[in-house]
Amino acid sequence: MKDSTTYALTIAYDGTEYSGWQIQPNARTIQEEIQNVLSQILQEEITVIGSGRTDQGVHALKQVAHFRTKKTPDTKMLFRALNGMLPFDIRILNVSIADQSFHSQYSALSKEYHYYLCLEPIVLPFVRRFRTHVKMPLDLDLLKKGAQQFIGTKDFYSFSNSPDKGSCGKNSIRTIYRLDVVPTSDGIRFEFEGNGFLYKMVRNIVGMLLDVACKKRPIEDIEKVFLAKDRRRASRAAPPTGLFLAKITYS
Amino acid sequence: MKDSTTYALTIAYDGTEYSGWQIQPNARTIQEEIQNVLSQILQEEITVIGSGRTDQGVHALKQVAHFRTKKTPDTKMLFRALNGMLPFDIRILNVSIADQSFHSQYSALSKEYHYYLCLEPIVLPFVRRFRTHVKMPLDLDLLKKGAQQFIGTKDFYSFSNSPDKGSCGKNSIRTIYRLDVVPTSDGIRFEFEGNGFLYKMVRNIVGMLLDVACKKRPIEDIEKVFLAKDRRRASRAAPPTGLFLAKITYS
Asked: What are B178-187's pLDDT values in tens digits?
């Protein structure tokens, strides 16, 4: 696609009211909202491609997306017009001109996801859309020990709901560089950093860690589930409410 | 009202979806939600009295309310049942048995309000219900100097929309002990502490300070408005979105 300019967008959203990032029939999606507004502004049919999908109810601190156009709109104008026309639960944090070959998904080197648990008896109303409420007591030492076992290059087949839907087809080997458990004012935040994540992988790992930390399952089960390569052996996925796509790193 | 027990509630709420605290016909209010749920739990008509009203769209970190009943429900049961039945944007943080004579409004010694301004180009979606977005540049030195002029015992007549609706009838003299301007991650927070606040007083003061800090009005106007005792001389009230009833202090 010569003679076109590639624009990169950094996007924050509260995913509560959306059926996820990716366009689907009869559903309100973030991709479609942005695409519609951009097409209106540029008077041209625009396709917006995100670094990856986020599921229904999942949020983003810094999703990255790109689009190409034969026009050369000013980035400041786009920033203002997009934020002026989009709903307040989707905000464009940055608009820039990227290398023509830039691709928000294929150019990504690593991704970061955050998952917030509220461990207090009450979730404050101000953060209720952004927390998973855990009412059972958790053994935080077990939680941290369990988290260690997910770090490294592994076959995450058992921790993905449907790898075909993932970005890398049938290869379910991924590398998690970092999985930190960070204390917060009302609980903890998991910080996942990896070279890529399979469909529902973060939520499946959090679900497994919760089962271990509340002693519903022994910590040895993590290794067993990895080896079984059977999704039915893993724990139930944790809910989407606490999950944020936090950061995409490019070269 | 002998033979009755007085219960005190500490309540947090996101006021976005409500027409304020106080019961009104044909409107959804926080007082009514709590009163209805309590009446259902206790199978008795309960009147819940708050430390003061909050307007449509105003939030509370720690509103205090009380009610009296001839029954003696367990506080832990009430805590669980209330939070189980109330919508998630209203949370009961604490239930306790108070002195029989305790009155959430008349027993209050002082109150604290917080008002959040976002001064960034974009309000993050996660806090959009809790910020007033100020897009014009503000002179923070002027803002702080202006804030100083509201501290002390003064006649706030010009800074109240309708003192008849306030808690102390026609007396518009109040004492502000503290009005701090605290930096936050996306702007500033005003912290007001005083012995009482007239109807719309906090929002009117913030509105006046904004006019001064963006140089729409000279700082000398603050003193002039105080002396004029004329509400029409004051600036427009700042919107409710950024306002929180933060704390009530009792002896």
From this structure: 999 999 999 9
Lookup: tokens for B106: 């008349």
Q: What is the pLDDT of residues A111-128, one digit of tens each?
A: 999 999 999 999 999 999
Instruction: With cut-offs at 50, 70 and 90, classify the pLDDT of residue B163.
Output: very low
Place of tokens 């029954």: B71
Q: Do B14 and A92 touch (CB under 8 A)?
A: no
pLDDT in tens, B35-47: 999 999 999 999 9
Work out the burial of residue B141: count CB atoms within 10 Å of its CB; fewer than 13 is exposed, 13-18 middle, 19 or more buried: exposed
d(CA B233, CA B211): 12
Query: What ipTM was predicted for this assembly?
Result: 0.92
- pTM of this prediction? 0.93
Is B14 marked active-site?
no
Whether residues A125 and B88 touch (CB distance < 8 A) is answered with yes
Q: Tell me the Cα Rg of chain B.
A: 19
* Cβ atoms of A53 and A161 closer than 8 Å: no
CB–CB contact A125 B13 (8 Å): yes
**Which of B34, B122, B241 is the best mutation test for A, with the most CBs of A within 10 A?**
B122
Q: 3-state DSSP call for residue B39?
A: helix
Find the angle CA(A33)-CA(A161)-CA(A103) to the nearest 5 degrees. Answer: 45
Q: How far apart are the first and last CA of chain B?
A: 22
User: Using an 8 Å Cβ cutoff, are A44 and A69 in contact?
Assistant: yes
Q: Are B159 and B198 in contact (CB under 8 A)?
A: yes
β-strand B108-118 against B132-133: which pairing, if any?
A: parallel
Catalytic-role residue among A55, A186, A221, A230? A55
- Nearest-neighbour CA in chain B from A168: distance (Å): 31
CB contact under 8 A, B122 and A13: no
The angle formed by the CA atoms of residues B233, B239 and B241, to the nearest 5 degrees, is 160
Q: Are strands A59-69 and A243-250 parallel, antiparallel or unpaired?
A: parallel
Nearest CA in chain A to B59: A126
Gap from A220 CA to chain B (nearest CA, Å): 35
**C-alpha to C-alpha distance for A8 and A105, rounded to whole angstroms:** 11
- A31: Cβ–Cβ under 8 A, 6 or more apart, which residues? A21, A22, A23, A48, A50, A65
The SS3 assignment for B80 reads helix
Percentage with pLDDT > 90 across chain B: 94
Q: Are strands A5-13 and A187-194 parallel, antiparallel or unpaired?
A: unpaired
d(Cα B33, Cα B23) in Å, to the nearest integer? 9
A91·B14 Cβ contact <8 A: no
Mutate to test the interface with A, among B63, B126, B131 (most CBs of A within 10 A): B126
Chain B residues interacting with chain A (CB cutoff of 8 angstroms) = 12-14, 59, 83, 88-93, 122-126, 128-130
